[in-house]
Automatic annotation (TrEMBL):
Keywords: Membrane, Transmembrane, Transmembrane helix. It comes from Aegilops tauschii subsp. strangulata. One of its GO terms (cellular component) is cytoplasm. This is Uncharacterized protein. The chain crosses the membrane at residues 356-380. InterPro entries: Maestro_heat-like_prot. PROSITE patterns: PROKAR_LIPOPROTEIN.
Amino acid sequence: MGRDQSDDLVDFSIELLQTQTVALSACTTLVSIEPRLPMETRNRVMKATLGFFALPTEPSNIVESLITNLIILLGAILLTSGEDGRSRAEQLLHILRQLDPYVSASAEHQRRRGCVAVHEVLVKFRNLCSGGFGASGSYPTLSLKHIDQGGPRGSSSLPSAFVLPNRDSLSLGERIMAYLPRCADTDDEVRKVAIQIIALFFNISLSLPKQKTSANDIDLESSYGALSSLEDIVSIIRRVSGCISLPFIKSSPEQMLKSIFLFPLKASVDQIEVFHRVVSSVCILLSKDELVVLLHSCTLAACDKVKQSADGSIQAIIVFIIRRGKDLREADVLRTTQSLLSSAIALTDKHSRQEVLNAVSIIIFLCLSFSILIFISRIIPTSSYYL
């Protein structure tokens, strides 16, 4: 019997996908061997292959194999990015920013792939920072607390500032704002991976040297406590098959703050409680400068393609402003207000727009409160002179 033309097209598509899978494996080999390809060439290879993240889910076995090979390629590009911490951090950020369109895509399978890729690349970077790589290029699976306990360093004869990047080079404020909406995603797997990404970022950052100007800005005791809370969440979401999905529209900033302090973290938790815990930890872990950058880059998060993620991001921004508003300077307040107003203009959902405007009103109220306190603090010493 003759074959249907559609069957021929399906066979061709499968054969093409299989060829592309092999080609990605070959690219990984090409990137990994000596002499190393120039950075420009490696970035061209990455740019030419990232589009595979947009492939449909079927045929699942072949597509999944292709995506796995693509993620391995991204890891190889990172591993060959240079010998010093700064160049590695720059390459990491370049890869992560290239993945942003997939992390925030409207299609669930693209968000899932993007988040998994980010997580795997971050694991590679963490192992680079801890010196944990084998002779064959394989990487051991380390616990999130491994770096804090002190791991082996392959280049112990070199100064840590040369081997390791500094914390500022990770652009934590920008990166956390990129992944925070995914912690409120409608897809369970996306939420789980996103929380692990945020925990990894802060785990890495606390192991890195800090610039002198920002060293005193971070309370290490509070930071390690918040990181421990994040790691507890990661442990729980790995055990629990799924979280109860509840709409974030029902959770006000006041309820979020109350939840953070009053509800103990149980073995079985709902989605809102997990998100509140993540927001609370992030609020403590960010330095002042990182918080400012996060708030300045809130427009995309507040306008996320997934409404639940957008609503969760807006609630998180309000909590950050309420709890850390005193850390904002006048210029920071103006830029944050501008970012929020840009979000309000771009949003089409009436409720989301109102929540953004609520955040703006909170900023204005806090500014007025601080101004009054400063005015009173200046007046009281003067008044006491006449008493």
